[in-house]
Amino acid sequence: xxxxxxxxxxxxxxxxxxxxxxxxxxxxxxxxxxxxxxxxxxxxxxxxxxxxxxxxxxxxxxxxxxxxxxxxxxxxxxxxxxxxxxxxxxxxxxxxxxxxxxxxxxxxxxxxxxxxxxxxxxxxxxxxxxxxxxxxxxxxxxxxxxxxxxxxxxxxxxxxxxxxxxxxxxxxxxxxxxxxxxxxxxxxxxxxxxxxxxxxxxxxxxxxxxxxxxxxxxxxxxxxxxxxxxxxxxxxxxxxxxxxxxxxxxxxxxxxxxxxxxxxxxxxxxxxxxxxxxxxxxxxxxxxxxxxxxxxxxx
Length: 299
Description:
Elements lengths: L1 E5 L3 H12 L3 E5 L11 H6 L6 E4 L5 H10 L8 E4 L5 H12 L4 E8 L4 H4 L2 E5 L2 H14 L5 E5 L3 H29 L7 H7 L9 H12 L15 H11 L5 H13 L5 H14 L6 H9 L1
Parallel strand pairs: 1-2, 1-3, 3-4, 4-5, 6-7
Antiparallel strand pairs: 5-6
């Protein structure tokens, strides 16, 4: 089928390539690659025939909102607008209602697969009505491996499921991070972390694709000396925690993993200074001068 994709970044570009290899005709628009795409969203819409399908693969927030508000007046009865980014599911529910008033179908497609999706395929969690899902099913079938796509509910459900998916990912990654730090720091053994990661891929209950990727990272840099321990969060972990609080659902592992990412960005923890000062005040415990700590970090 023919469709338009907006955004040719790490995900959008590879998805476009996979779709074209699968026999689909793909028109594109990307602000960062004007030589390879339509000149504007307006031109992209004119290149498509009804029923038009336009798939957004751009950052959540303002970029997605601007693209949605620009495209919606250009679309007509029976057209389908897909948001494949990591938008907040409540924004997706609002956009779906706005699109419905124009008789345009809105689909929120949570997409997982990262830079490996071109080769391995993408897991697609779609929030859609039945007719829009049927329209898009040939596209989903090309993008996903066998069993790797589903309609998980009405509009909004796709991004909700993807949000929780990413919250779980935070927890899994933090568990691996803490475990491998313990393996590395114990004085009794000189463990080969790449060996352990590879070993656990065979029959272990903790085997996973994340562990496979970690093994590859250790093969490339056994002590991860070329990587700074600074971990960003893209929003979904925060939203997962917010929704858990609002729903009174205990999610301590995901919450702790999110806070660990915050802690990774601190060069010096003021909270740790407060702890040190309190121990000194009530127990006379020695404190380490700031310049001494700075010198140690520079070693």
